Amino acid sequence: xxxxxxxxxxxxxxxxxxxxxxxxxxxxxxxxxxxxxxxxxxxxxxxxxxxxxxxxxxxxxxxxxxxxxxxxxxxxxxxxxxxxxxxxxxxxxxxxxxxxxxxxxxxxxxxxxxxxxxxxxxxxxxxxxxxxxxxxxxxxxxxxxxxxxxxxxxxxxxxxxxxxxxxxxxxxxxxxxxxxxxxxxxxxxxxxxxxxxxxxxxxxxxxxxxxxxxxxxxxxxxxxxxxxxxxxxxxxxxxxxxxxxxxxxxxxxxxxxxxxxxxxxxxxxxxxxxxxxxxxxxxxxxxxxx
Amino acid sequence: xxxxxxxxxxxxxxxxxxxxxxxxxxxxxxxxxxxxxxxxxxxxxxxxxxxxxxxxxxxxxxxxxxxxxxxxxxxxxxxxxxxxxxxxxxxxxxxxxxxxxxxxxxxxxxxxxxxxxxxxxxxxxxxxxxxxxxxxxxxxxxxxxxxxxxxxxxxxxxxxxxxxxxxxxxxxxxxxxxxxxxxxxxxxxxxxxxxxxxxxxxxxxxxxxxxxxxxxxxxxxxxxxxxxxxxxxxxxxxxxxxxxxxxxxxxxxxxxxxxxxxxxxxxxxxxxxxxxxxxxxxxxxxxxxxxxxxxxxxxxxxxxxxxxxxxxxxxxx
Lengths: 290, 317
Description:
The structure holds two protein chains of two kinds. Chain A is α/β, with parallel strands linked by helices. Helix content of chain A is 30%, strand content 27%. Helix content of chain B is 77%, strand content 0%. The relative contact order of chain B is 0.15. The chains are: A alpha/beta, B mainly alpha.
């Protein structure tokens, strides 16, 4: 089976850790609708993310996941409905205040100019500073400890553009941590990564929720939702069609409806070690597997 | 560099003597008779020219570096927003109308600023003031103004005005005297100070507009200030020296090779290199031939070998 590399016992499904000071929702989205011109992209989405939750959003390409993220990040502001961050309406938050509440982790990219990894992480300090200020010694210390917390200490002076995809993704996560926001939004953090790095990045992300961070991420891999998410949202045509623990939100039927291919789920493990679901397209094997 | 260059020219003065001149000037001791002529040459002619080259060099290099960061494109130069074309058109128009040199300076400077403003407004109409809209509008307005400049050249009196126009359009520091510096200098210095203060913000903007916004970089304000500063610096430079190509495009790349991409270091490095480069090229322009060679012609002749040398060294490293 594909999952030989992951020790089953390490992965806890459905474990919400309410260790945060404010017990309220980190993010509440109510009746959110958004359209590009006349074309509706998001239609009346309602969901919330609690502190310590890892929420996966699944849905085919073009279903509006990125648009949803852009609304939550304050890039698209012409939405209807309400987005509450820590109980405060997004409409009342300016760019810097928003950046201290929610951090965005893009897919590992290569910028035009080659900064050192430390310089990239240092950019997380911007929201706390005036427009003319330069990062201070303290900001550098913060950036260093963010790198260190993800095991990247020795990469600090390496050229970010020359790091591997997995390392670059981790550097971007370190930057988000140094930004001081408690809600992390990630757009397909495992896209373009090799199999080992996908698992390592997801493990790091799961580790962050244990520290009280809330994570909202999109993925195309149902197994990631099964393995790591505390809750899964399934989106189709700009709407939420399922919302709940991954084992409830993702069924053979819903996956088949979502992606248009027959899918079979396997339940592995046992009560003592923990259970998880594996997922496979059926194709020509359909009869054999039944 | 400045001291040595102040000594170079038709009337050679040793660096030692130049320093002595500076010293007597600063300490207020009376000038020895033998140095009177040298003093006149240094303070009246060469120093304004060198200060001009320093200002223009750092202004163009810093604006180029800033725009390259802002537009995330290493091929962008300070005239992307049509500033140089606007300032050149203003200057050519003044020459065409036979205005006083000081009026030329002001007209050229305001045309440069007005062009950038027009480009900004146009971009707002085209799209949501995005970078692409800015660059496209800049190219459009710039080419329109270049055509207008050509039209004026066509209409100009070929015996007197046309040579002056052509000469001005090749760029150079020979016309820079104290009054020009007094007018353009403060603008350039203020713009450079603004860019230096904003240099870390440029790092953030190179990550792309959306990402910079999620980092809380105050993108609209930062971008507006950077464009304002770079535009001020560029149009003031073009107004006093004519359009000088190459510096704003290539010097930031030299600086990037030596100092890295971090704008906290890169921007000051670009300014230093831009200034030194133009002083050096200006020395060549004064020394190579009996009559001065316009600097716009020389920048690439001097720049390309230097660039190739740097690439070689970079390759070895």
